[in-house]
Structure formats: structure tokens, C-alpha cells
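Researcher: Let's walk through a ligand-bound prediction step by step. First, I give you the protein sequence. Second, the SMILES string for pyridoxal-5'-phosphate. Third, you return the three-dimensional complex as C-alpha cells. Ready?
Model: Ready.
Researcher: Here are steps one and two:
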Amino acid sequence: MTHTADQLIARDAEFCWHPFTQAQTAKAPLPIVRGEAEFLFDAKGKRYFDAVSSWWVNLHGHCNPVVSEAIKAQLDTLEHVMFAGITHPAAIDLAQALVDRAPQPLKKVFFSDNGSTAIEVALKVAFQHWSNLGLGQQRRKLLALQGGYHGDTFGAMAAGRSSGFYDPFKPWLFEVEFLPTGTCACTEEEALSSLDSTLAQQGDQIAALILEPLVQGASGMRMMRAEHVAEITKRCQRAGVLVIFDEVMTGFGRTGSLFAAQQVAQFGGHADLLCLSKGLTGGYMPMGATLASQALYDSFLSDDVGKAFLHGHSYTANPLGCAAGLASLQLLDNTATQRNIERIHSIHQYWQVQLSTHPLIENPRVCGTIAAFELKSPIDAYGSASSQWLREAFLDHSIIVRPLGNTMYWIPPYCTSSDTLEHAYQTLLKVLKQWEVTQARLFSDTELF
Ligand SMILES: *Cc1c(COP(=O)(O)O)cnc(C)c1O
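Model: Step three, the predicted complex:
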């Protein structure tokens, strides 16, 4: 089979259905044939900087030899085995490595396939926990934050309903109580007082709260202070409400610490359940994990099989995923990786100051290796098209980005060199100049008609 760019695009159009894509109006996809470190190469041999870590999953660069070798070694030993009634060394090693590194009180690991399934597992464990205690009818409600995104399966969609991605499915989503957040909709004090009144009115009917600690990803990289997150968790737990941290995006060093939960723990806040995926395998294999406290695990112990967690996936604890996860964690432990995370953080911080006075940029912000800001647009109606315009403008400069509306962000692999990242910021300045010209032209067109 030949693989010229045009042939790949033609065959893709014939057979593939892409995520989050309106095929009728979308540009042809970019055919990528190879990856190396922070770069991807297209079918013509052109090199691109993967500035969003391939949808936030890649930590150590593409085709990192340590992760690749670990997967190859596992592949020649045991590729897969079911995880009910059977266990295997890679799963035990990875579960222990996660528990060793996770903050209190997380002690047990339930493996699944991706971020959405890690969320479904957490929601089902929370609901069944109350059911096992005979309080299933009483504590039925879920609390979530406005602007939260938790994935695309039904429970995850219900918890992220406020993001507006799910209009066709609304009739099938269970009810969720949404709280305003101290990110942009209101102040932290207002968010907390709204939480207080919800807890006072219906605290004993709520099973759990779910939130993305420190950074709400898909709704626009909205950042929260660790102290504020800790305050939310404490108030919920005082009312007996379980707390679920969705660290699918924030996990594995993205926010500076291995888990965002560690920064929250410094202010005395903790989660009863913690969901991981994306960076879990360094971006090499699809896998999810839900960590639970010993107390939650114990509430499923009984002579009654009906009180067990009757949930599982065919590929639960897939050995190849576990091997990749272990290799990735070992790389994360290296001081070289830690230094890279700090290096990326300080480049972001330097540019945050530079961009803070730029006339076309609003609210530049940084959390660990994540940097984000909004682009100002004088024409409101243009907002929805900004993302597409930005993507193409950066692609012309060999940089792959995927803005969320007019929110631009960098979330690079940790191996990204300072030169590559500096060049991306310099390119941003060029793209902003183009943006200004385009906006001015659009503006004059609007006046003409
Ligand atoms: C991506 C994401 C998910 C969903 O993960 P998938 O692997 O895409 O199902 C859930 N929560 C957060 C915070 C995410 O960023």
C-alpha cells in the first residue's frame, strides 16, 4: 500500500470517521507518519512541533526509547490476560507505584481503558458505596463544577453537561447540581457561599462532588488556586459528601507536582477517589485508573456478591499499558525530567510577563507546564471561527495547536527543548500580527456590508 500524502487523505476520507470533527466543512486531516521527541513528521517529511502533546497525553516525547523498549519487552512476555480471577506482575507493579506516589488516603487501584471509563468507575463506586451502606435512595445526587469536562460516556457527559458539548443527549443525562466556580464566573467567596447553601439545603442527599483540581482543561484551561480547591473538598467532606478528583489531564506532572492533589493536600484537602488516564502511560497506550480510599474499598466487602463492584472491561489492566505506565513513572522520577518540568514552567512564566502587556492578549496564566491565554477579538461573531483560524496559522509555521475557542494554550511534552518552546512563543508574536491584520480586514468588510 502506498502512502503519499494525497493517497492517505483520500483513503482516510473513504474509511475514517474523526472525533470532534464536522467532516463536511473540516480541512483534510494532516497525515502524520512518524514521531520523535517533541516532533511529528508528515507524509512529505515536514516536521511539526506537537505543542499540545497529542491531546495532552504525551509526556516524554514520541517514540521515547525507554517507554518503547518496556512495551516491546512486555509484548514478548505477556501481551494480555483477563484481570478477573487472574493477576500479573505488571499490573501489581503499576498499582503499587501509583499508590506509593498518590497522596492520602488513596490505597486501591481499579484499572480501565481511558479517561471517560476512569470517571464512570469513580461515579459508580461513589453511588454504590452509599447503596452498600443502605443509603442509596437518600444520597443520589452528584455535585459538579460549572465548566467541568469529564469525558464523553454517559455518566461523564452528565457530570460535564454544563460544557455545552452534549445538547443532543440531554434527555438521557442524569441530574447533576452545578456549582459556580471561582475561576471567572464569580469570586472564590461567592463560589464557596453557593457551595455552603447547597450543602445546607441538600448535603445529606449528595453522593459525591467531582472536579478537576487546579485546572479545568477542556472548558478553556481555567485555573484555580490549590487553597480554594482544598476549601471546597473540606466543606463537602464535613457534609459527608465524597470527593472525586478528575486528574485525567492534570496528572503526571502537568501542574508542576506529580498530581494536582499533592498541592491541594498542602492546604489540608484530599480526594476519596482520583481518576487518571492521558499521561498514565506517557501517551503510549490507552489506559485509565481510578484510585480509591481504603474506606471506600472496604464498603464493598461482604458475603453478598451483589455488594461487590460488578464492573470491568475486556482490557482491564492490559499488561502493555501497565508496562508503559511503569516506564513512564520511572522517567518521571528522574531528576532530568523534574528539571525539564521546572524549565518549561519558567519559560512559560517569563512569557506570561511579556504577554501581559500585549494588546491582543487577555489573562495570560500558567500552572506548571500548562500556559494559556485568551485572544481578544473585536468581532464577537468571529469567536467560534478563531480556533480554526489559529490552528491553520500555527500549522503554516509547523506548530500543532488546538485552541479552545479563543483560548490558546501550550501543553508541551516535557522533553521539549527550550529552543523549540522559545520558537513557539516567537511564532505566537508573528501569528498575533497576522491576527491583527485579519481582524482589521474583517472589521472593514463588516462596515462595507
Ligand atoms: C480528556 C479528559 C477526560 C476524558 O478522557 P478520554 O480518555 O478522552 O475519555 C476526562 N476528564 C478530563 C479532565 C479530561 O481532560
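Researcher: And what stands out?
Model: DSSP finds 14 helices and 16 strands in the chain. The radius of gyration is 22 Å.
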